[in-house]
Amino acid sequence: MKFGVVVFPGSNCDDDTVFALQHNLGQEVVKLWHKDHDLQGCDFVILPGGFSYGDYLRTGAIARFSPLMNEVIEHANRGGYVMGICNGFQILVEAGLLPGVLLRNLSQKYVCKNIHLLPQSKAASLTSSLESRAYTIPIAHGDGRYFTDADGLKKLNDNDQVLFRYCDADGNISDEANPNGSLDSIAGIANAGFNVFGMMPHPERASDEALGNADGRIILEQLVGVLV
Amino acid sequence: MKSEINDGNAIPTVETARKLGVLPEEFARIEEILGRTPNFTELSIFSVMWSEHCSYKNSIVWLKTLPRDSDRMLAKAGEENAGLVDIGDGLACSFKIESHNHPSALEPYQGAATGVGGINRDIFTMGARPIAQLNSLRFGNPELAKTKWLVRGVVKGIGDYGNAFGIPTVGGEVFFDECYNTNPLVNAFSAGIVEVGKVAKATSYGVGNPVYIVGSATGKDGIHGATFASEDISDKSNEKLPAVQVGDPFMEKLLLEATLEIIATGHVIGIQDMGAAGIICSTSEMSAKGEHGMVIDLDKVPTRQTNMHGWEILLSESQERMLVVVQKGKEDIIQGIFDKWDLHCVQIGEVVPAGPDDAGRLHFYQHGELIADVPAHDLVLGGGAPQYHREYREPAYYQKFKEFDIDKISDVSTEDIVKVARHLLSHPNIASKRWIYEQYDSMVGTANRSTNRPSDAAVVRIRDVSRPDYKKGIAMTVDCNSRYVNADPFIGAQIAVSEAARNLTCTGAEPLAVTNNLNFGNPYVPEVYWQFVQAVKGMGAACEKFGTPVTGGNVSFYNQSSDDGPVFPTPTIGMIGLMEDPAHQMTLDFKATDDLIYLVGAPKNDIASSEYLYSYRKVKESPAPAFDMEEEYTLHQAVKQLIVKNLVQSVHDVSDGGLFVALAESAMPRGLGFQIASDTNFRTDAYLFGEAQGRVLVSVKPAQQGEFQKYLGGDQKIPHALLGTVTAQDFVVDQEVVIGTSEARGLYDNSLGKIMG
Lengths: 228, 757
Hints:
The structure holds two protein chains of two kinds. By secondary structure, chain A is an alpha/beta fold. In chain A, 24% of the residues lie in helices and 25% in strands. The N and C termini of chain A lie close together (8 Å). The model of chain A has no long low-confidence stretch (mean pLDDT 96). Chain B is of the alpha+beta class. Chain B folds into three domains: 1-60 and 200-387, Phosphoribosyl-aminoimidazole Synthetase, Chain A, domain 2, CATH 3.90.650.10; 69-195 and 445-584, CATH 3.30.1330.10; 394-440 and 586-757, PurM-like C-terminal domain (Phosphoribosyl-aminoimidazole Synthetase, Chain A, domain 2, Alpha-Beta Complex), CATH 3.90.650.10. Helices cover 35% and strands 22% of the residues of chain B. Chain B has a seven-stranded mixed β-sheet with strand order 8-10-7-11-9-12-13. In chain B, a hairpin with a 2-residue loop joins strand 2 (83-88) and strand 3 (91-99). In chain B, helix 7 (108-124) packs parallel to helix 8, helix 8 (145-165) packs parallel to helix 10 and helix 10 packs antiparallel against helix 13.
């Protein structure tokens, strides 16, 4: 079992993700350089948060054309596991590995704070064994408003592809607890094959007792679980 | 004297010099140094290098009086791009604060963004990876449309730049007063960690070593920006808009990674970022330090537009650039790293020996012609740059403020307490700055130990994959109540240092060192210069007392306008502390009902310069609040021990808004309340809302009351008083409910957002 964290120019959560996987979860993890064409035998590829290519043009729109993305897409199409966190989610959407788009937050402002997530999908290995309670996880994005058309939303719901919804501290899903105006309070989704995951919140930022919150670690531990 | 070096421009006169901000006596001095009249390019060079911004000519004689040494200092003020403090285990913390006031006044978004970029380059050019940022912001009346525009622009500028750059913004301060209507203050702080012995130097030596420019291409932005920062703001200032630079955080992020990679190779002789005054500043400062010369071919500098004049290339303040001197023979290694990060890396010249009569000259060529020939040493601070003793005079208001008589102000009634409480909790100077800080990424780097632990100073762990269990952290804070400094610059500056030290102490950290950002009006106005001199004296005395030397910083004069006069004198203190053992990181929030609330430190019958007196009673003229440095110091030592001995559940300093606001801020995070009794020996307003210094609010488990009192009373003789207890809800004073906890939280959390819309 081996994790790979892709480093794009402008990625800034690559080290955080490596630290969480390696130190907090005790996993083997390597960094993958975006200009290479080699996944180095990784079983699970993570596209980390940050501002790949400065978010210029549109979030994730340029990184999607980085050389290594050819291999990432092939890996996913073969059923290999891929996860995008924040900017990584935006890149996966641009690359067509996940449905929908991520729009500017309804507030028109970047927002960084702790929010609450309620696990949803019973079909996705990432969330199926999580307790049904509010997990406290940080968000940090300007473009996190998930959107898709009515058919797309129906498919996500019918196939149980919604991984997380924003909720309040007591686990209630409401507009007030939705920090960016995402459609149906969606915070994370899986593809139809349940091997590609994307989420805007940052579990790697809540994976260490030193930071006073380890809810994210419980979510990351599911990644290790899916590979068993 | 005739110019012998032709740059294609007319020979400058004293009048040209004046237009570039060079005084007639300085022009004469330049002629003397060169032995001839400078050409326009050379005059431009001197004008920026001798501007206040680069030379500190009007401040350096006083800055030199500040304490600059302790056993932890690895680089003293002025020696490197930023201060460097030994934190043990082979690690050092590099930190600095810098202003971007003038650009932010005209173009708040880019002004603030490039301020963030500049301060971070100062840190990573030393080989230190930045770990956290703070900022200290001051704006005018928040109800004014212009202020809202400035706040929105500055905050978005800081956020967009810092967030993309990927270093967390973990704290700061924001203050509103009409004196900042025209001149907002934007001070940005950054701190980084570097291994001792692997610090890169801003120097240049070794004849034949290649000189590289790396990073962004050079454009016409920011030309004479340093000169612009050395003038009052007027209605003509908008004509200087091209003097404001444009930032690119993506480029900065790439430059950070590439810079740290080349420094790690060990093949870098010297490196300096290009901020104020661009290429000329880096080439002259590095050459002067290394006592060598340089020959530079400006045709090789990558430019954004064609037909740039030589002086434009030399003075351009285009962002995200570095000058690097590399060991000859290692060019390919350096080039390879910049290629990897898709950054420009172009050799523009080489190091040459010093001449027999000088310590190194700079020769700049363009189109095959020598367009400037200047001695590096004469351009720089500590070399030939002028140093002035300016005239100063005590302003008339100073004694007038001291005539304030508290007995002429009626005390508050029970009904008044409710009104004052609501006023203070929703006042933008006191209310939560959530609307601002939520726009900053405070958590990237997974190092912010304060996200889930509110405290008086931010704590950042030193996270390193190679030693994942490393425990130590750095605590940091920026502080200055400029209203106090205006009332009394000597005491006000002492308070600023004390408050910074108090914030670190209340968090459980050991104060280590200071960086300062001295924001003042026009130094040629004797009353303004008096404020500066008094503030530096006060700061020096307090830094001496707390053992926190000043490692460097920034002076920003000319924060004054033709309409509004000078801003309050604002010597912002950035202070770092060492969090040796995170088990002793202390928080400010009350933990449990029935815990006992104590005030440690002596209450005073004092409301001077408080937010209550100033904005509720609308009395603008009063002296600085009560302050005694010995009492303050003793208090800090006691608080430190209370934390180490685990005798306290929470610690929060009493500052803006007084005791009541401190109580509210401790109660609100967990939705708790308090009931306290005031002390009839004091005026009620002074007791609840006065801002006398040297006081700290703590909560104590009932089971530890005896031990707590024994330590403070028996052993230490520190004044302390039991105020009451932590309750489940409501803020109760003398049996009257002043406000409910949830209502207080609503006011405190949302007031600033409501104003900003």
